[in-house]
Amino acid sequence: MRTPFRILEPGFAQRALGFGPEATVLSKAGRAARLGFWYTPFVGPLLRRMDRVLPAPAGFRGAYQPDYWTEDIVQEEGSLRDEARDIGLDYSIVRPAQPDAPMPIVIYSIPMVWGARHRSPPINYISRYLAAAGYCVIRVSHTDSDRHVFPIDVDDAEDRYGYVSENIRDTEKSHHRFLDTPFLIDSLESWSAGTGPLAGLLDLSRIGMSGHSFGGWTVYFAMGKKIGREGTSYADARLKAGIVYSPSPSIDPYTPVEHFEDVRAPMLHIAGSRDVSWSEPTLPEDRIWAFEKINAPEQYRLMLKGADHMTFPGGQDDRGTATPREKNLHTIIKTVSLVFWDAYLRDSDTAKDWLRTEFPKALGRTGKIESK
Prior knowledge:
Helices cover about 40% and strands about 20% of the residues.
């Protein structure tokens, strides 16, 4: 039996008291579970109401100027099928309508919940902003892969969480999502060499990957984090850098804190101070603890004050319900994303310097960024 807070699960007490294989990640499990219990139904809605009536926070004063900018962007949707695995995925592309050079590429892996229930993923504020700055952004819905793990016909959240937790442990079901990444990059190479609308327009030497929630772990595995006791790797060396937005604390049931030694690419790890969970014992810092485990240089950890798990995808903007605080946070998130990609996909020394010196100043008390 699984409960929303996993109190009755075998091993929960060990983790809560700081023992067992997951102790280094979940030693605060009891406090996290209590925090999640109160936050999700009560504290979170109250804070959002307060955000609407309290004075808006000071606006983000960062003034980063990209080398390229256009208001003329286009969106396209489509689907791909890996015949070898009999797995399909859907995608949405947003890019400059008339790029003046081959475009660097940013893959965005969306969360499992959307991928299992829907098809073409929506274009959000981050993707539109990057496209205006000259990037080809490909948002991926792991449609068939996620349906191996996420039960689209189960409405009860507790039952659904238990189902997902069990299926993630089944590598025959969960690994399809991680195999989607190399298949997609192979497809990009075919598009660039073909005769379609992207022929000759993709810079395949400059590919980055980002993801939100479960998509964040898809990024970690693509960057070289191995999974399971045997250390299975899904790394793709064609990826040059990565961003994770509020990733799940760990989806590796066996060795959550191990096997980061092969992650060598620059990465930006982002979470929010309100980023807790009712479904498992999670504190905000648990979401980006991988920063501490990765020994490679050019690692950044950003904690944003007032951001929760759903701040990052930005559905509030599309619905017109974003609070002043959320609008300010969205500006920060899309700005630091662009600066990071300019730094590590375009090799801009100006962007690297801005990220390390100017961005912390502009961030002020809205968050804290660390680097190593």
